[in-house]
Each structure stands twice: as C-alpha cells, then as structure tokens.
Amino acid sequence: MLFCPKCKSLLVPNKEDPKKIVCSCGYKSRQKKNLSVKEKMESSRRLEVVDKIIETLPLTEMECPKCEHLKAYYWTAQTRSSDEAETRFFRCAKCRHQWRQYD
Ligand SMILES: [Zn+2]
Ligand SMILES: [Zn+2]
Questions:
Q1: Nearest-ligand number for the alpha carbon of 90
Q2: CATH numbers and ranges of domains, the chain
Q3: Ligand nearest the Cα atom of residue 27
Q4: How far is the CA of 5 from the centre of ligand 1 (A)?
Q5: pTM recorded for the entire structure
Q6: How many A from CA of 70 to the centre of ligand 2?
C-alpha cells in the first residue's frame, strides 16, 4: 500500500488510468512498473551480447521468410536425443528475424 507524501492518506489507482495513483488532495503518482530501469538495462545488454555472438556466425544464402533478404546467419543445435537430426537456426542479416528448419 502507498500513502500520499503530502497528506498521508491512502493512495488509490485512478479509475480512468490505473497506472496512475491519485489522492483526494490532488497528489498524483505513477505506480512502479514491473521492470526496474536496472532490470531493463540488463535484459537489453543481454540481447546485445546475443547479437554480437550471432554476427560472428557464418552467413549463408537463405531467403528470409519475413523480408525476403537472401543472407542469413546460421547455426545448429542438437536436440535432446543424439540420433535426432540437428535443428538449424537462421537469422536474417537484415531484419534479424529468426527461424529454425528441421530436416
Ligand atoms: Zn494527499
Ligand atoms: Zn529478414
């Protein structure tokens, strides 16, 4: 529960905009978002790292199903059982769309 820093009464979400909490004295505040700024920065940094790794992978001629660009990064990953075929992953060099292909 949150209390108004001005008059110390209980703050309630605004009916029209539940993201805002308001007080009968006119005080307005924003409720905390699910992700803190720090968490957001960390998750975007993690994505940047993945991008850097992927961009060192070999490029192959493969048509992107999304933007029809003809170059994609590719890598393979073994599925659970070793006698199953590898799954090939592709990532469009242009729009970064990612998809997989089974044999
Ligand atoms: Zn108040
Ligand atoms: Zn694409």
A1: 2
A2: 13-56 (no CATH), 58-103 (2.20.25.10)
A3: 1
A4: 7
A5: 0.51
A6: 8
